[in-house]
Amino acid sequence: MKARWWWLFGMLFMVSAYAEVSVPELKQRVTDLTETLNAAQIQTLEAKLAGFESKKGSQIGVLIVPTTQPETIEQYSIRVVEQWKLGRKGVDGGVLLLIAKNDRKLRIEVGRGLEGGLNDATAKRIIAEIITPAFKQGDYAGGIAAGTDSIIKVVNGEVLPPPPKVEHYIPEQTPLNPVVLIILGLTLLAFVSFFISQVTQPSTPALNGVNIGGVDKPKQQEINYSKQTWLYVLLEVLKVVIAVSGSRSGGGFSGGGGGFSGGGSSGSW
Amino acid sequence: MRNLLILFVTIWLTGCGYNDFQLKDEQVKASWSEVLNQYKRRADLVPNLVSVVQGYAQHEQAVFIGVSAARASVGNINATPELINDPAAFAKFQEAQGQLTSALSRLMVVVEKYPELKADTGFRDLQAQLEGTENRITVARNRYIQSVQDYNVLARSFPTNLTAKMFDYTVKPSFTVENEKAISDAPKVDFSPAPAVQGK
Fold first, then answer.
1. Is the Cβ pair B132, A261 closer than 8 Å?
2. Closest Cα partner for A180 from A241, A233, A244, A239?
3. For B12, B104, B134, B160, which has the most beta carbons within 10 A of its beta carbon?
4. What is the pLDDT of residue A210?
């Protein structure tokens, strides 16, 4: 099964392998690959977009890349949103503001669910009247801030289902890693056998390893051994807890499964 | 565990693929509906666009006639979902849409001569809508091509091709390269960023 997925993945890769700009992994709402924005500006933007998402449920992403060549910005943009899946599944209220800095081109890609309010004409106006005037003066941070403000304003006028109570959407719970499960099971088994051996033969030298089953005759260090065993148990539990929590800490930001069909508008400065 | 997995994969691989056909067939239909939907959206835009342009450019009758004729011929084709099972009708549909595409791009070239028209907000909105719709058509076409490809691979490769023969699932037509050429002439519509070209 796994091999099959890799094969599929390889095929996909081969199809799109001819020197296209790759889509960066979605880790946060604002992705700047050109180092145009400073940390504080990204922070502010990030907070604004996160706040909006928790209020309205709509995910807005910002991506700044150096270039989308050889593809057009529209071709690249649709690949980005197909991978990122901004917006909730079924509601499709995602928006991507994509800026190709060296190409001097930008695009607002609008999720299917927002095409009514944030329609092509409105997107074009936001680009032509709000963002590009700032970009022409080299004020990228100002243009992006004002542009996202107007996108937020337009989307706020839309009727969308209210967002769930959580801060942001956690992707579907990934099932526990089977390896972790096996380790967990084995450790549990070890504990149980320890305890049983402790109870039935209180003086088994459990930590001698070879004699875990407890065949040896009792020795005189019962108290010591039971203390060591407890320490060992505690350590193992700790290890397992760390392993389990590590395996599911995706963290950060991810798309909610929203769909796009190519709506929005592009412009240049 | 491992043996079970291998067994499962084997059964899956040698399966007749009947259910896969159902799934892929529906996917092709859905993506085709989206293509039709977006082409219709474009056709609906044409009258408004023509009337706005006419307000400023009365002397371009030839272009207007060309657009109206192309739109009429698009409208004459009964674009049903069954079209995808008829390669001849599919080709005709493609040709008509391609003609509308080139007629529209001619119209947008004419617009270049009229600065007041280009400044008209009503026109700019329509222009944005046309650009957006052309892009949606491109996206819908690409997704259709993808779904047809998935379907056709299933219909032609062994052993699922036996199932295809048995249940009469034939290979579906996709967009051809010639059409692709006609379509890719369209982006002439994107004429607004003249200063950017100079700035480069």
1. no
2. A244
3. B104
4. 52
Question: Residue A65, SS3?
Answer: strand
For chain A, which ranges sit under pLDDT 70? 1-19, 165-180, 198-227, 231, 238, 240-251
Domains of chain B: 20-191 (1.20.1440.20)
Residue B126 predicted with pLDDT over 60: yes
Tell me the ipTM for this assembly. Answer: 0.73
pLDDT at B198 over 50: no
Residue A85 has phi, psi (to 5 degrees) of 55, 50
Distance, CA of A86 to CA of A169 (rounded, Å): 11
Residue A124 one-letter amino acid: K
For the cut 50, the answer to whether the pLDDT of residue B191 exceeds it is no
Q: What's the gap in Å between the CA of A174 and the closest CA on chain B? A: 21
Q: Where are the domains of chain A?
A: 22-170, 178-247
**Which one of B139, B149, B192, B197 would you mutate to disrupt binding with A, by most A Cβ within 10 Å of its Cβ?**
B139
The answer, for B198 touching chain A at a CB cutoff of 8 Å, is no
Q: Which residue in B34, B38, B131 is closest to A120 by CB distance?
A: B131
